[in-house]
């Protein structure tokens, strides 16, 4: 169960049948409840069962007999991604959209995500958002301005940008004083992401866009509009760099502010200008200590262009996607350890499903955005659990977990890192936790970030454990016909 109530979210742009499938929400990490396992004074930092050495990827790598075995090679990953795009309803094929978009289609997409709130919401000062504010936000949807048909436009994202349920930057919350989970925050897009523009807000400051994995509102200033050849041709050929750190940052440059200190998140792929003359400065700086990359930019008229930028060699990047091995899975996941939890990619960070998506993106593996879609994706190797599945089957599945396996309970996903002390251990981006302390009293921990915890002691309610609530286990591995 989720720590906070959530609304449905849209999935596929199903052009052929005009259908709109609804995905369950992003993960607001579940509230841990009372459990049978109790903490001991030796638990590191008060987290149940935790030892300090468990906070190192090297510890878990050392437990493995073959950490460098290739789980999927490049051809296998390409086949896996093809399956994802073919079979998973949460993945959108932007090129399949028609040249003109009918009004009913655009309206259906907006109505699916921009649903008027039915409960009281609070602003950052803890004050209720009044009816006049909500009415102004609703008016900004400009539903009455949707034309009978709209020419399709494409664009590239030029800066890390929030995807919003409504065309507004107003942050709203379910309760006064709890300002972590913004109910209008949906997800984020990254520099170089392609979008299809479906509509524009009444104030002209927001675009309603479809990306490969999500449909929502984005600030217009973060999208450069271009033709299909520009958008889909960006980085399609030639050398490139893949960001392999949790984040990387381009070099500061006053000469070209549009590409200065730009955040690039794990798995973002950027083309390299390999033929850039060695002695020619890039935005006022010689590039010998950096990679000369090309980034999309937006001019004052909103048109898409491209500019060179410097990605310092000190930043964690690679000339190709990493090999998908257990060692690399652990190394990549632990690069996020301690990062603040960010609902819907808030705070320039990520949430539980964003976390696992970005880890796998550094290998070139495509995953759906939300936990609900990830958990049931027909493109992955899924082990499903229902109410009739008893303790024996669940325990056996937990015992058989492998590094990199994704474990889902309603509203949350965790990544397996190994077994120790008779328990399976997870790394996950979570907002909190609770368990019994040594004194028998309930300990409530506001973990609120990427954390390492055991699986079995955690509880989804006073009487049901996480293991009891497992809905699915997903494994990325060579596909076998079932």
Features:
10 helices, endopeptidase fold (from Nostoc punctiforme), single chain, 482 residues, five-stranded antiparallel beta sheet, alpha+beta
User: Into how many domains do the coordinates divide?
Assistant: 3
CATH hierarchy, class of the largest domain? Alpha Beta
Q: Termini distance?
A: 30 Å
Structural class per helix/strand content?
Answer: alpha+beta
Number of strands: 26
Instruction: Find the CATH topology of the largest domain.
Output: endopeptidase fold (from Nostoc punctiforme)
Strand content: 25-35%
Q: Report Rg.
A: 23 Å
CATH H level of the largest domain: which superfamily?
endopeptidase domain like (from Nostoc punctiforme)
**Count of runs of 4 or more consecutive helical residues:** 10
Helix proportion: 10-25%
Q: How many strands, what sense, and barrel or not for the largest sheet?
A: 6 strands, antiparallel
The average pLDDT value, as a whole number, equals 90
Shape: globular
Q: pLDDT below 50 for ≥5 consecutive residues: which ranges?
A: 1-11, 14-26, 28-41
Q: So, CATH architecture of the largest domain?
A: Alpha-Beta Complex
Strand order of the largest sheet: 19-26-20-21-22-25
Task: Give me the secondary-structure topology.
Elements: E1 9-10, E2 22-23, H1 57-62, H2 74-87, E3 100-102, H3 103-113, H4 131-139, E4 149-151, E5 153-157, E6 161-164, E7 185-189, E8 194-200, E9 206-210, E10 215-219, E11 223-226, H5 228-233, E12 240-243, E13 247-249, E14 263-265, E15 269-271, E16 290-298, E17 304-312, E18 317-318, H6 326-334, H7 352-361, H8 371-376, E19 381-384, H9 391-399, E20 406-409, E21 412-420, E22 423-430, E23 433-436, E24 442-445, E25 449-454, H10 466-469, E26 472-475
Antiparallel strand pairs: 1-2, 3-4, 5-8, 5-11, 6-7, 8-9, 9-10, 12-15, 12-18, 13-14, 16-17, 19-26, 20-21, 20-26, 21-22, 22-25, 23-24
């Amino acid at each position: 169960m989720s720590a906070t109530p959530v609304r449905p979210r849209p999935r596929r742009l199903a052009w052929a049948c005009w259908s709109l499938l609804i995905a369950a929400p992003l993960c607001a990490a579940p509230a841990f409840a009372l459990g049978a396992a109790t903490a001991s004074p030796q638990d590191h930092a008060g987290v149940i069962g935790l030892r300090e050495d468990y906070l190192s990827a090297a510890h878990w790598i050392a437990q493995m007999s073959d950490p460098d075995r290739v789980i999927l090679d490049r051809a296998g990953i390409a086949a896996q991604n093809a399956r994802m795009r073919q079979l998973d309803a949460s993945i959108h094929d932007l090129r399949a959209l028609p040249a003109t978009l009918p009004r009913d289609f655009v309206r259906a997409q907006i109505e699916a995500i921009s649903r008027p709130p039915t409960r009281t919401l609070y602003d950052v000062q803890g004050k209720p958002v009044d009816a006049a504010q909500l009415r102004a936000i609703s008016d900004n949807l400009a539903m009455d301005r949707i034309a009978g048909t709209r020419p399709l436009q494409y664009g590239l994202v030029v800066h890390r940008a929030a995807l919003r349920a409504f065309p507004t930057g107003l942050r709203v919350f379910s309760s006064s004083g709890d300002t972590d989970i913004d109910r209008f925050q949906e997800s984020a897009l990254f520099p170089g992401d392609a979008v299809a523009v479906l509509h524009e807000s009444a104030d002209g400051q927001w675009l309603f866009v479809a990306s490969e994995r999500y449909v929502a509102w984005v600030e217009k200033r973060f999208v450069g509009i271009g033709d299909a050849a520009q958008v889909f041709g960006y980085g399609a050929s030639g050398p490139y760099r893949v960001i392999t750190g949790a984040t990387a940052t381009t070099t500061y440059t006053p000469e070209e502010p549009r590409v200065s200190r730009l955040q690039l998140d794990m798995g973002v792929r950027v083309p390299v200008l390999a033929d850039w003359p060695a002695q020619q400065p890039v935005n006022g700086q010689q590039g010998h200590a950096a990679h000369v990359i090309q980034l999309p930019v937006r001019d004052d008229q909103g048109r898409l262009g491209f500019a060179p930028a410097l990605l310092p060699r000190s930043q964690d990047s690679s000339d190709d996607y990493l090999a998908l091995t257990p060692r690399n899975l652990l190394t990549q996941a632990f690069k996020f350890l301690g990062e603040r939890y960010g609902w819907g990619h808030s705070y320039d960070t990520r949430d539980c499903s964003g976390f696992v998506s970005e880890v796998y993106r550094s290998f070139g593996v495509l995953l759906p955005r939300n936990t609900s879609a990830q958990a049931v994706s027909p493109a992955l190797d899924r082990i499903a659990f229902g109410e009739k599945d008893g303790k024996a089957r669940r325990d056996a599945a937990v015992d058989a977990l492998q590094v990199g396996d994704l474990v889902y309970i309603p509203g949350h996903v965790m990544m397996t890192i190994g077994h120790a002390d008779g328990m399976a251990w997870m790394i996950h981006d979570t907002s909190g936790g609770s368990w019994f302390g040594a004194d028998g009293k309930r300990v409530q921990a506001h973990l609120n970030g990427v954390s390492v915890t055991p699986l079995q002691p955690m509880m989804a309610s006073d009487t049901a454990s996480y293991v009891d609530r497992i809905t699915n286990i997903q494994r990325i591995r060579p596909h076998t016909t079932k």
